[in-house]
Fold this sequence. Notes:
This protein is α/β, with parallel strands linked by helices. It is about 45% helix and about 20% strand. Strand 1, helix 2 and strand 2 (about 80-85) form a beta-alpha-beta unit.
Amino acid sequence: MKNIRLYINRENWPQFVSGVLITLIVVVIFYYGQQANAAQEQPPVKLIVYAFSTQEEALSQGILPAFEKFWEADTGKELEIETVIGPSATLAGQINLGAPADVAIFSNAHHLTWLKMGRKVKLDTQPIVIGMTPMVIVTRPGNPYDILSYADLAQADLCLLHADPHSSGAGEWAILAEYGSALRDTGSPSEAKAQLQAIWNNVRLLGTSARATLVLFELGAGDALITYEQDARLAQERGVPIEIVIPPQTIIAQHIAVTVDDNVTLRERPVVQAFMDYLLSESAQRVLGRFHLRPINLTYKGFPPISNPFTVEDLGGWSHAYSELVEEYWQTEIEPGLDLIPTPMLINSED
């Protein structure tokens, strides 16, 4: 085979160099044009947030618009956010059945345990506490039954509404508040269970979530209910005529957020992590504070004081408290004897 050599004489050298440079420029322009077209054709990254009922306003009116603006300014990328709102325990069940949540915001840490059992999150996944709120008692204006503590909910002829512990984290928190307040007063588990039973003797209606129970109260059902301070104050802002009683002994509900590891793709992970980080930022904590969720990183300035607050850790942690109080006592001893009245019979009518 003959050797082939390319001879470029000095006179043709400038034309050769120019040709090479032009070719390179064309290739570079073509490459980056293709990259730009690919970026334009790629859909916006999507964030799907499942959150329990009382966080709807804080998310839709505060946290999510602020985070979307932050993300797009920081990365230059479009972001699409989808939310699903419902009872906390119900959402955990839906996620275990395949619901596509990237982030779950639960009313309590026990619902994360269910996701671990369903292998939707890693066993070593740790949630973040995004805020806290005490459980309070909501009454009619003027507090006609003179309710000052959880013990007063056991008085005769009182019609009590309650979030359903089967579906609602608020229902579970309320059980812990009803039991724990008496335990701290007396030091006696048997007396605490007796108070829990006496209170539930007056329960006439179960709502699927904290928000659903409060809506029934707004419609005229019942004389009192136990709910989150946050949701009660949001109701007052909407003009609902209620009175809020903070019992001297009450539990502080801690709300959590967790990444649903099984659902998050490689492309979604940066935005999910950024959202989790944002929830703990001072900016997000101030937003949550405006929606009456007591912040974790800031002082409680502007919130009423609580005389003797306690936490789930004072009751042995969620695993112990849920097993002993919700499953072994409420479900087996109290729930079978509930005397519930159909909803329409509880709602006062002026017609």
